[in-house]
Amino acid sequence: MIRMRSLVSDGSRLRRPAPLALPTVWGAVAVAWKFGCPLARQPGLPMRIATSVVFLTVGIGMVLGLRRGLVRELARVRAVAVAAQQVLLRPPPARLDGLSLAAGQLSASRGASVGGDLYEAVATPYGVRIVIGDVRGHGLAALGAVVAVLGSFREAAHDEPELGGVLRRLERALERHLRERARDEHPARSGTDPEHPAAEEFVTLLLLELGSDGRLAVFNCGHPGPYLLARTVARLPVGDPLPPLGVLPLPAVLVPHTVAGPLPGETLVLHTDGAEEARDHRGRFFALDTALAGMSGEAPAALVRRVHAALLRHTGGRLTDDVALLVVRNDRVRVPAQPAEPGLRRSRPAPSSHC
C-alpha cells in the first residue's frame, strides 16, 4: 500500500511539469536561434522582425501551456471538492416512509456548495428523524462542526430509542470537536489568533421526529421554527427553546415538545436564519413567509428552487450568510373510517323470559 501511494505521488509529481515541456523546448529553440544562428545576428529590419516573431511565439506558447496546466489542475480540484461536499451534505432521498423531501443550500463562500448549515433526514424504527442546524459563522470555516454534528446524528438517529438521547449524542460530539479545536488553537501550537475561535462556536438546531401516527416531537435549540404550508402559511409551534449546543449544558431531563404533524398534502419548510435575514440593497429583509404563500401546491424540489431564485433576486446574488432549506411534504394516504355494513352490525341479544 505504501509503495502504491509512493508510485501515485511520484506520478502526480511527474505530471505537474508536463505542461511546461513544450514551452521549454520552444524557449530553447528561441535562444538557439538568437545566439547560435548567424542569420539572427545580421543587421537589418527583416532579421529583427523575424527574431521578434520567434520570441513572441515562444511567449504565447508558454502562456498557453501554463494556462492549459492550470485549467486541468483546477478541474481535478473541483471534482474532488464536489465529491467531498456531496458526501458531507448529501441530498435527502426524494421519498422516505410516505414523505416527499427536498433540500438545498446556498453558501456565502464563493465556489462552495456547503458551508455552516447542515440538514439530514433518516427513516428509523422510531419514526422519520430530521435535523437542521446552523453553525455560528458561515462558509468553509464552519465545516468542522458540521461534520461532527452530522456524523453523530447519522449514527444516533438509528441507535437511540428516545429523541432526547439523540440530542445528547449531538451535544457530546460537538463538545469533542470544540475541545480538539481549542487544543489546536493553543498559542503554543498555532502561534496566531484564529479568525473563528472554538470558544465562540456554537450550533443552533431543530431536531424532529415524525411518527407513524402523525405526531411530531421537536427539540428546539435556539433555531427558527419551521413553516407549515396548508391552506395558509403559519409558523409551527416548537415549544420553549433550549440553549444552542456549545453555549450551555443541556438540562438533566429532556422532554420534547409534541404537536400534530402535517396532515396528508401539507408541507413543512425548515430553514436556517440566513433565509429570513437576507437583505436587499436597501437593507430590507427577505419575507420568507410571503414568498411561501403562493407555493403550497408545489413539489418539494420545485419549492426549494423557487425560494432560492427569489432569495438571489432579493439580494442581487450577494449573500452574507449561508441559507439551507429542507422541505417535507406528507404524502401518506389518510383512509377515513368506513361504517360497517348493515348485515355485519353486531346486534344486542334479546332479553330472555322465564316462566
Shape: elongated
Secondary-structure element order, as H and E?
A: HHHEEEEHHHEEEEEEHHHE
How many helical elements? 9
Which topology of the largest domain does CATH recognise?
A: Phosphatase 2c, domain 1
The mean pLDDT is 78
| Poorly predicted regions | 1-14, 343-355
Total number of distinct structural domains: 2
- The CATH H-level homologous superfamily of the largest domain: PPM-type phosphatase domain
User: What is the terminal-to-terminal distance?
Assistant: 99 Å
Strand content: 15-25%
What fraction, in percent, of the residue positions are helical?
Answer: 40-55%
CATH level-1 class of the largest domain: Alpha Beta
Structural class by helix and strand composition: alpha+beta
Task: Give the radius of gyration.
Answer: 31 Å
The name of the CATH architecture of the largest domain is: 4-Layer Sandwich
How many strands, what sense, and barrel or not for the largest sheet?
6 strands, antiparallel
Note the main attributes of this structure.
355 residues, alpha+beta, Phosphatase 2c, domain 1, six-stranded antiparallel beta sheet, five-stranded antiparallel beta sheet, disordered N terminus, disordered C terminus
What is the compact description of this entry?
By secondary structure, the protein is an alpha+beta fold. It has nine helices and eleven strands. Strand 3 and strand 4 form a beta hairpin.
What would your notes on this structure say?
The protein folds into 2 domains: 82 residues; 239 residues, PPM-type phosphatase domain (Phosphatase 2c, domain 1), CATH 3.60.40. 40% of the residues lie in helices and 18% in strands. It contains 9 helices and 11 strands. Strands 1-2-11-10-7-8 form a 6-stranded antiparallel beta sheet. The chain has a 5-stranded antiparallel beta sheet with strand order 3-4-5-6-9, covered by helices on one side. α2 packs antiparallel against α3 and α4 runs antiparallel to α5. The N terminus and C terminus are likely disordered.
